[in-house]
Write a structure and sequence with these properties.
Helix 2 (36-46) packs parallel to helix 3 (62-70). With 233 residues, the chain is an alpha/beta fold. The chain contains 8 helices and 12 strands. The protein has a 5-stranded parallel β-sheet with strand order 2-1-3-4-5, sandwiched between helices. A 4-stranded antiparallel β-sheet has the order 6-7-8-9, with helices on one face. It has 2 domains: 5-125, Response regulator (Rossmann fold); 129-229, Winged helix-like DNA-binding domain superfamily/Winged helix DNA-binding domain (Arc Repressor Mutant, subunit A, Orthogonal Bundle). Keywords: DNA-binding, Phosphoprotein, Transcription, Transcription regulation. Pfam families: Response_reg, Trans_reg_C.
């Protein structure tokens, strides 16, 4: 089975060489683009499985590249950037990026992020219409059709908001969801900036599905950015 085809969008030669050498060593197929316009052309021509995207490109900003790719494709995009401010991460994720890796980064972390995306792609590919109505992640099971969730086969007693949050996270397993994305999908645009309320609901949900606050098994917090559901082995 072929490894995913990865589009590397990076204009810094040292970083580009590090990424491509890592991909080659681990038998990934890859394409390279040195600017935003070439990246969009390569993405539309070759339909890669994953995009590794730098934000500081010489022609157009990486966030604009994300928006343009998202206008026609859902291919996973992992941002790799020296911009480390929460606002930069939020802008990229809100534009449609799936994950954000800050430079400098380790090879091991890059490979781990790729594995997360690959598992998500495999789940999407393997879901048949009959299976798509049920989500299973370790001991957690969600029956979308019945509107019920279970942990270790015991039904969870969730409020409507908690259930909606759980479903939203599960349908985007492995992907970082920003506070804005979550609040808009759960409550609508009027709740866009009410992060405090979101934290309260997320805390009550976690108490019902996690073993303890210091050992999150299903929901990972990205401080200042949002939340991600972890895919358990």
């Amino acid at each position: 089975m072929n490894k995913p085809l990865i589009l590397v969008v990076e204009d810094d030669s040292s970083v580009k060489n590090l990424i491509t050498t890592t991909l080659k060593t681990h038998d990934y197929r890859y394409l390279v683009a040195g600017n935003g316009e070439t990246a969009i052309l390569e993405a539309s021509s070759h339909n890669p499985d994953i995009v590794l995207l730098d934000l500081g490109l010489p022609d157009i900003d990486g966030v604009e590249v994300i928006r343009r790719i998202r206008s026609w494709s859902t291919m996973p995009i992992i941002v790799i950037s020296a911009r480390s401010e929460d606002t930069d991460k939020i802008d990229a994720l809100d534009a449609g990026a799936d994950d954000y890796l800050t430079k400098p980064f380790s090879v091991e972390e890059l490979l781990a992020r790729l594995r997360v995306v690959q598992r998500r792609l495999a789940m999407i590919k393997n879901d048949s219409p009959a299976e798509a109505s049920v989500f299973v992640n370790g001991a957690l099971r969600i029956d979308y059709a019945a509107g019920c969730a279970y942990l270790d086969e015991e039904e969870l007693h969730l409020t409507p908001i908690e259930y909606k949050l759980l479903c939203l996270l599960s349908r985007n397993v492995g992907k970082v969801l920003t506070h804005t994305f979550i609040t808009q999908n759960i409550w609508g645009s009027n709740w866009e900036n009410d992060v405090a309320s979101l934290r309260v609901f997320m805390a009550t949900l976690r108490k019902k599905i996690e073993k303890g606050p210091d050992s999150p098994q299903y929901i990972q917090t990205h401080i200042g950015v949002g939340y991600r559901m972890i895919k358990t082995e």
